[in-house]
Design a protein that fits this description.
Length: 99
């Protein structure tokens, strides 16, 4: 009986962790992404090279990377290795890689 309780508790904690991770996902509405794409197209930036930094969601960018504002959008953007990425300015973490 003791094993079943421990197994059930472990399963619950695992599922709770998955739920917490899903709650942290950033959702950018298609309309907002369109606004961002159009703004970025009109305000092109030189691409920055960051050797050893992978462009994954949640990757924190170094303080040396200058983040640029998009009017009326809470996130900032930068072009890294010819890819536009949206960054949370508070954490400097990548929230979206725009394809």
């Amino acid at each position: 009986m003791r094993m079943h309780i421990t197994g059930a508790a472990a399963a619950f904690l695992l599922l709770a962790g998955v739920g917490a991770a899903a709650a942290e996902d950033i959702i950018i509405q298609p309309e907002q992404e369109t606004v961002i794409r159009e703004y970025v197209k009109k305000q092109p930036l030189a691409s920055v090279k960051l050797p050893g930094v992978e462009l994954n969601l949640g990757t924190a960018l170094p303080d040396t990377v200058e983040l640029h504002e998009v009017p009326n959008v809470k996130y900032r953007y930068v072009v890294i290795d010819n890819q536009t990425v949206l960054v949370d300015p508070g954490t400097r973490k990548i929230v979206k890689v725009i394809q």
